[in-house]
């Protein structure tokens, strides 16, 4: 459009400049024929008018073309703006389609077998309790007196006998070991259900742990998963143990991390101390070519040492001693000539710093737990603190409190059900963890003996909730409310909570089996208890309403 206007102005200016009346030629005169001049001027004017019209049409055409271009550009911009959300919805639809297709393939391959049924069952899991006829107080009291209390005396006699023999065996073990080269064995400690007085299922097995330490001038330095270094999720609850000289820096000297050069020496470490012979470290039960204590090496050493110790004192006893499990270093069995036998576990452990937390070489395994990630990974046990917590909290509870009774009954029911339908992912340790959480959560007066029925229902409900969520947290790890009287290490209280049910997330078949066993146990509760209950006259049960959970 500006170009057209410029061209019109140029034509007008040219016409004006060339007009003969305004700019006559030099020495020129006015023509004599006026009419001829007028005619030519009219012709000139007509040609200018036509040129003007042509230019106006051209300008109008250019303006129309410009408007069309602007309109087209606006339409294109609007299309682009509409295309963005359209592309987003298209991409989202494609993602949803792919997810549905992947789910369909997994379902067809059987990877998610019964997933829908599992979620439906868990959604109404609480309703399963409403149809369960729970034994009343009289039946529970009779069952506890007949089936549970009768075993208390047997446990006490067995503990006394096993502890006495274990002390004698360890004393003989010290005598056959080389004090300058072999590990130093300390006194054993009793842990677990037998020493917390809630073991109900036979055969009774005493669990004894035996701390040991390296010979001088060596010491153990440990590293746990929550100390700052990254551990894989499946290795939470584990740690490593390094065999070091007592005068060696904990953090390690810079000479171990930096090449000092041939003409430089470390003033703290001589050349002879920087590298240790492989045979020396293997004698210290370390993994090959490392300083890490090897649980398998410890197992072999301990079994050999126990065998030598028994050979020295076997003439004093009228029974035989043997290892009952090949994959456990201290699973021992006493066999009497009468045919009876007593089993107990004597397991070597390493103390964590100055606490009563211990690294255990071989932890009793079950179908839920996976194998140890490595023989240099040691599991941490808090069994000593668990026993102390139960003893401490028992002092604040009413006389004859029902917390141990609840755990015993629940352990009995679960054990009976597993003997009928096979093992599940639940263990007695899980059941004890449930009791520990409730002991901390409920007021002391709620554990009076007459509230046995209510507290047993609470434990079942809590266990149901944990199974539903696949979350049962370790009682001590990540628990900032541990009583200060226990002297529990603060590093474990500040750690992230450890989910004992994490394997359920990874093993759906075990989880399904565990939930089915739990439901079946609920349905069989009355039958299992009545099977071991003395008949109660009707007069004693009149007016007692059978409650449902």
How many strands appear in the DSSP assignment? 10
Architecture (CATH level 2) name of the domain at 151-247 and 279-381? 2-Layer Sandwich
Q: Just give the CATH class of the domain at 151-247 and 279-381.
A: Alpha Beta
Rg result: 45 Å
> Structural class of the helix and strand makeup?
alpha+beta
- CATH topology name of the domain at 151-247 and 279-381: Beta Polymerase, domain 2
Overall residue-averaged pLDDT value: 78
What distance separates the N and C termini? 90 Å
Short description:
By secondary structure, the protein is α+β, with helices and mostly antiparallel strands.
Question: Could you please describe the fold and organization of this structure?
Answer:
Helices cover 50% and strands 11% of the residues. It has helices at 2-17, 34-109, 115-123, 125-128, 137-148, 152-176, 193-196, 271-274, 278-283, 295-313, 383-394, 403-421, 428-441, 452-469, 490-493, 502-506, 508-523, 525-531, 538-541; strands spanning 184-185, 189-191, 205-213, 218-224, 238-245, 319-323, 331-336, 341-351, 358-360, 378-381. The protein is elongated. The protein is an alpha+beta fold and 549 residues long. Strand 8 (341-351) and strand 9 form a beta hairpin. Belongs to the ITPRIP family. InterPro entries: ITPRIP-like, Mab-21_HhH/H2TH-like, MAB21L/cGLR. Its main location: membrane. Residues 1-15 form the signal peptide.
């Amino acid at each position: 459009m500006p170009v057209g206007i410029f061209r019109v102005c140029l034509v007008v200016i040219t016409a004006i400049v060339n007009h003969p009346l305004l700019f006559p030629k030099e020495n020129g005169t006015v023509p004599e024929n006026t009419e001829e001049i007028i005619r030519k001027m009219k012709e000139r004017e007509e040609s200018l008018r036509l040129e003007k019209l042509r230019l106006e049409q051209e300008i109008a055409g250019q303006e129309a073309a410009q408007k069309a271009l602007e309109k087209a550009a606006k339409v294109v911009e609007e299309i682009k703006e509409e295309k963005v959300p359209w592309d987003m919805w298209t991409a989202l639809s494609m993602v949803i389609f792919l997810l549905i297709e992947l789910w369909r393939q997994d379902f067809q391959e059987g990877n998610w077998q019964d997933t829908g049924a599992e979620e439906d069952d868990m959604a109404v899991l609480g309703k399963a309790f409403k149809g369960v006829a729970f034994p009343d107080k009289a039946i529970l009291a009779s069952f506890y007196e007949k089936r549970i209390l009768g075993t208390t005396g047997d446990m006490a006699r067995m503990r006394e006998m096993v502890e006495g023999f274990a002390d004698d065996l360890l004393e003989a073990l010290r005598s056959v070991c080389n004090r300058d080269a072999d590990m130093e064995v300390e006194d054993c400690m009793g842990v677990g259900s037998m020493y917390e007085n809630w073991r109900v299922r036979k055969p009774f097995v005493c669990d004894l742990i035996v701390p040991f330490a390296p010979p001088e001038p060596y010491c153990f330095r440990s590293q746990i998963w929550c100390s700052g270094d990254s551990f894989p999720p499946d290795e939470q609850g584990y740690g490593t143990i390094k065999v070091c000289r007592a005068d060696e820096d904990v953090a390690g000297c810079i000479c171990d991390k930096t090449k000092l050069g041939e003409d430089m020496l470390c003033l703290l470490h001589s050349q002879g101390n920087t590298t240790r012979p492989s045979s020396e470290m293997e004698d210290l039960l370390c993994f090959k070519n490392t300083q890490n204590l090897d649980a398998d090496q410890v197992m072999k050493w301990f079994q050999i040492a126990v065998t030598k110790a028994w050979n020295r004192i076997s003439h004093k006893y009228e029974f035989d001693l043997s290892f009952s499990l090949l994959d456990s270093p201290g699973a021992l069995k006493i066999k009497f000539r009468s045919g009876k036998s007593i089993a107990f576990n004597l397991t070597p452990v390493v103390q964590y710093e100055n606490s009563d937390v211990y690294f255990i070489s071989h932890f009793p395994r079950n179908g839920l737990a996976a194998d140890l990630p490595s023989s240099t990974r040691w599991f941490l046990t808090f069994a000593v603190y668990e026993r102390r917590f139960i003893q401490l909290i028992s002092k604040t509870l009413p006389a004859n409190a029902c917390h141990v009774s609840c755990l015993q009954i629940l352990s009995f029911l679960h054990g009976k059900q597993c003997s009928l339908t096979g093992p599940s992912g639940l263990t007695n340790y899980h059941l004890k963890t449930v009791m520990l959480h409730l002991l901390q959560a409920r007021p002391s007066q709620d554990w009076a003996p007459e509230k046995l029925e209510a507290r047993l229902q609470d434990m079942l409900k809590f266990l149901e909730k944990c199974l539903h969520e696949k979350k049962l947290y370790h009682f001590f790890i990540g628990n900032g409310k541990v009583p200060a009287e226990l002297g529990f290490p603060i590093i474990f209280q500040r750690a992230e909570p450890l989910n004992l049910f994490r394997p359920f997330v990874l093993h759906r078949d075990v989880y399904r089996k565990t939930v089915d066993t739990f439901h079946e146990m609920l349905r069989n509760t009355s039958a299992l208890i009545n099977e071991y209950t003395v008949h109660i006259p009707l007069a004693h049960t009149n007016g007692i309403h059978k409650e449902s959970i």
